[in-house]
Amino acid sequence: MRRGHTYTDHFSLDTRQHELLGMDLGEGIPRRALLLGLSLYIVWTGSLLLVFGLPSRITFTIYFLPPLLTVVYGTQRSRRTDRRWNITNWSISIRYLVLGHRPIICGGRRAATRSEWISRRARWGGKVDTLAASSVLGGLVERWLGDDDVPQGAGAPLRLNAKPRLYGPDAVVKAHGRKALQHHKGEA
């Protein structure tokens, strides 16, 4: 049995920031996490400042805590895919739920038509049953989820009728012998 080794995780060197504005940060903060946190704080706080204005003592937590929690838990290694951060898996999951899955057909030789996408109702499954059952948002959620049926033009599933054949060494020698015999007849 062959065995493969992946060495890329061993070479995952993370640059760290050990000092920030004259403050010693000890063992340092990973720079990618620091840049992610800085960009999240700018976007989050900037949008809240534009909409609500300056924070009060009560609302300061809303301005400060969500980006901090996102950075702290988002920059940890994922348990599902060890080479990714949690925030990457979160964004892929959200993208799947909102935009959907677009299948790759023939190795990307042609784009999938709209009828070949997985419907919103199939992607969300039972996650929104309670929301759809509510009297306030029920109609809106049902309209957004769309039909439960197969989209138009999808057609019936294809049935493949492949029959594998196993050739033993005797058949291979026999076939090779025929090929060699035909080759010799062509020379004569």
What would your notes on this structure say?
The chain is mainly α. It contains seven helices and two strands. The protein has helices at 31-52, 60-74, 86-99, 120-124, 129-133, 138-145, 169-187, and strands at residues 16-20, 23-30. β1 (16-20) and β2 (23-30) form a beta hairpin. The chain is flat. The model has no long low-confidence stretch (mean pLDDT 75).
Mean pLDDT across all residues, rounded?
A: 75
Low-confidence stretches: none
What is the β-strand count? 2
> What is the CA-based Rg, rounded?
29 Å
Which descriptor suits the 3D outline?
A: flat
Number of helices in the DSSP assignment: 7
Largest sheet: 2 strands, antiparallel
N- to C-terminal distance: 46 Å
Q: What is the H/E string?
A: EEHHHHHHH
Structural class: mainly alpha
Strand order of the largest sheet: 1-2
Helicity level? 40-55%
Bin the strand percentage: 5-15%
Task: For the structure shown, list the relevant keywords.
mainly alpha, 188 residues
Topology overview:
Elements: E1 16-20, E2 23-30, H1 31-52, H2 60-74, H3 86-99, H4 120-124, H5 129-133, H6 138-145, H7 169-187
Antiparallel strand pairs: 1-2
Helix pairs in contact: 1-2, 2-3
